[in-house]
Write a structure and sequence with these properties.
The protein is mostly helical and 296 residues long. The chain contains 13 helices and no strands. It has helices spanning 16-40, 46-67, 69-73, 78-101, 104-111, 114-126, 132-149, 158-179, 185-203, 213-239, 242-245, 251-264, 270-294.
Amino acid sequence: MAAIGAQKLDGAEGGHGTGILLFFLGMSLFTFNDALGKWLVADYTVGQVLLIRSIGAFVLLLPWIIRGIRGLLTPDQPWMNLLRVTLMALEVATFYFAVRGLPLADVMTFYMAAPLIVTALSVPLLGEKVGPRRWAAVLIGFVGVLIVLRPTGAALSASALVALAGATLFSLVLIVTRRVRHTGGLGLITYQVVGTGLAGAATVPFAWVPPTGFDWALLLGLGVVAMGAHLCMNKALSLAPAAVVAPYQYSTIVIAAALGWAVWGDVPTPTIIIGNLVIIASGLFIYYRERQLKGA
């Protein structure tokens, strides 16, 4: 999935347009990365996809890792960072399991509920206060999730539940990332890459499908594309505040739907479209309400 826990960085007003374009490019790269992953997990195990894509990302990160090795070996809050890495590995694996059985846009719809889940969980886990308006938005957003799930015996699928579990894990990653925000961007990405790779490596002795030469390039390319997306988003947040670019994350659902239609012939159903609109509207309300409360 997309970038994790971006922090608010103020940039010059004149750079906002470039920041928005870079953020959109980063989100597009993440969505392309997800689509490529869906393509590859049809033929290869989730574990080896995690391992090989992590190798590609690690090679790209290596020059920065060498320069910052001392800080990486002595992280702040090591146990919280370990928890974040564990949740991240589970979330990425869950995402790939979900896209095996569902169209990419359907899975992305569940992930659009992450801001709602974060708002709900921030009360017990972070001690934050949520007012009645935001609670109402959360409840309305979960109505959108129910519309997408269609919880009947005939329509509710295991893949849909896995996708919802992935969205919940993604939300927990966002919450834990708030707690380890002083670790620094290089540390967060490096631990994420190494942890996900080790999780994938643990499964390799039990299931391995030998990739072809071209598929090796695609599998390694997953990590390279993801790192490119991170670089775009980090640069975007140095040019424009997170408050300016954050709403553009919802562009991923449009890109995912277009890729799903072009590659797999998946056409979003009316319930997916309606549920998506409800979820996005609720998420945007929570986002703008938080801006008002913070005086943004």
